[in-house]
Amino acid sequence: MMELQNLIGGEMTNPQSGQWLDNVEPATGQVFSRIPRSDAADIEAAVEAARAAFPKWSSTPFEERAACLRRWGALVAKHSEALIAAESQDNGKPVSLAQAVDIPRAQKNLEFFAGAIEHFASEAHIPGGAEFIHYTHRKPIGVVGCISPWNLPLYLFTWKIAPALAAGNCVVAKPSEVTPVTAWMLSNWAAEAGFPAGVFNVVHGLGHEAGQALVEHPKVKAISFTGGTQTGAHIARTTAGMFKKLSLELGGKNPAIIFADCDFENAISTTIRSSFANQGQICLCSSRILIEDRLYEAFRDALVAKAKRIIPGDPSDNTTKMGALVSAPHRDKVLGYIASAKEQGANVLCGGAPASAPNERCASGYFMQPTILEGLGSECNINQEEIFGPVITLQRFSSEAEAIALANDSDYGLAATIWTQDASKAHRVASQIESGIAWINCWLVRDLRTPFGGVKSSGVGREGGFEALRFFTEPQSVCIPTH
Ligand code: TXE
User: Fold this and answer.
1) What is the pLDDT of residue 216?
2) What confidence tens digit (pLDDT) does each residue in 224-273 have?
3) Which of 17, 204, 262, 309 could make an SS bond with 35 (beta carbons 3.0 to 4.6 A apart)?
4) Dist. CA 155–CA 152, nearest whole Å
5) Is residue 363 domain-shared with residue 471, that is, in the same domain?
């Protein structure tokens, strides 16, 4: 049985409580590892180690901080096969996806922020007459908390810790208890990458225990969180009176707007990917497909025909395109939404039930059929709440204005995709969509320098590029006379 440990002050440590949590493989439903059930005592030890390491790390030249990140990235590359297998086993995603997306992007995150810190400049302001110079000194904050979810475990874990460390902060990270393995593997290589003891700490455990203790710790000056909107709201309430910096990347209910003049084949194949990739467990997935009236039947039938050909398989099989959902509770949550949709009169065009096990090994795994629903109004909970599984709904519109109104009829505002071959319409529609991200005739095309995040219930703040480095620093404005 694999036993994970916390990394605190450069040492791999067991939970002070002596309590452990089972970790289940989604494809089989079997326990395959156990992790520390850490609590406030473990968080306290990690924060103290981080505080002790901060003076030296924050004054380490940025070139050395960048070199540590680059060495870490090289270690991810060196161990990529083991990381790919571990990510797939822990999350239920196909190995092909972990190989194509998760692990290469984790390496890229580390390398990208090594470069970003080498180019992160600050400003000076010289008023007319040049009697004074005002310069902005961007200083690391101190000890910061990084809390990450289970859908893209190492990808989103490194997306937070890399800019935090690059900027000169010391980190206490709390990965999801549902998918802790690759964060633990990475923590084993921190010393080899050159990070001094205490600069980077990982405390495993439950959100409302270890996570809550991290969020409310008075010496943790900033929290970068990705996860559910409800949890994000809870963290905001917890920290409101503590005036901590907060970066909240939360849920989404992303529309795909399909105009009749779209590139039909491209729109179909990309919408299948944007709907069902990672079993629909990506905050950027499209879950509301809005189709112009005169194209509705043709698009619907083509989408359903493709979705029916997606057969959930054993994630460890290289040919598998769709794996298992991350946990039994999550699988049941998704099935609950489908049952509710049926009760409300939805027409199930395909799927709508658990998928049969792909083989004996996976007999007790959490597999679901890709599901497409139609016939529900925009106000229906199925079209308003984040399901976060392989479930999409189809709605129709008859005008550009109606498409925009439908797309914006949501408490969320993370991402949107727009399909039209009329460029001016594309720009016009994109500018009216309430979202942090808009893709036109493509999906999930990423440039790590761009601001990443959402509006409304999709979160507060932006990650990515210099946005992340500005979040993880505090600017001080200094003024000096020039005479
Ligand atoms: O998220 P949680 P979960 C959405 C998706 C999903 C829902 C819940 O709809 O169904 O969120 O998923 C830690 N103080 N997204 O349960 O609970 C927790 O341990 C501090 C969208 O995974 O928000 C984990 O490390 N930390 C999202 C992390 O928060 C707490 C991706 C996320 O857990 C805590 C994942 C607390 N009180 C889910 N409670 C996206 N935007 O990509 C929990 N945590």
Assistant:
1) 98
2) 999 999 999 999 999 999 999 999 999 999 999 999 999 999 999 999 99
3) 204
4) 5
5) no
Nearest CA to ligand 1 atom 19: 207
Tell me whether residue 379 is one of the annotated catalytic residues. no
Q: Are 391 and 334 in contact (CB under 8 A)?
A: yes
Q: How much distance in Å is there from the Cα of 225 to the middle of ligand 1? A: 9
Q: What's the rounded Cα separation, in Å, for the pair 14 and 380?
A: 47
Distance (Å) from CA 291 to ligand 1 centroid: 31
The number of distinct structural domains making up the chain is 2
427 alpha carbon – ligand 1 mean position (Å): 33
With respect to residue 430, please indicate whether it lies within any of the assigned structural domains. Answer: yes
Cα distance from N-terminal residue to C-terminal residue, the chain: 70
**Segment 350-365, tens digit of pLDDT:** 999 999 999 999 999 9
Protein residues whose CB sits closer than 6 Å to any atom of ligand 1: 147-151, 174, 176-177, 207-208, 211-212, 215, 226-228, 231, 234-235, 249-251, 283, 386, 388
For ligand 1, atom 27, which residue shows the shortest CA distance? 227
Choosing from 283, 285, 362, 380, the catalytic residue is: 283
Counting ligand 1 atoms within 8 A of each CB, the residue from 23, 105, 147, 366 with the most, and so the one to mutate, is 147
What 3-state DSSP class applies to 474?
strand
Report the nearest atom of ligand 1 relative to the CA of 333.
10
Strands (E), 160-282: 170-174, 200-202, 220-226, 245-249, 254-258
Q: Say which of 25, 87, 111, 249 is annotated catalytic.
A: 249
Q: Are residues 223 and 328 in the same domain?
A: no
Q: Average pLDDT of the chain?
A: 98
Among residues 284, 166, 287, 145, the alpha carbon closest in space to that of 223 is found at: 145
Q: Within this chain, do residues 132 and 269 fall inside the same structural domain, yes or no?
A: no
286 falls within a domain: yes
Instruction: Give the residue numbers spanning the domain of 370.
Output: 254-447
275 within 8 A of 310, measured Cβ to Cβ = no
Q: What is the pLDDT of residue 271?
A: 98
Give yes or no for a contact between 448 and 108, defined as CB atoms under 8 angstroms apart.
Answer: yes
pLDDT digits (tens, 9 = 90+) for 8-64: 999 999 999 999 999 999 999 999 999 999 999 999 999 999 999 999 999 999 999
pLDDT value for 213: 98
Q: What is the CATH classification number for the domain harbouring 441? A: 3.40.309.10
Question: What CATH number should be reported for the domain holding residue 205?
Answer: 3.40.605.10
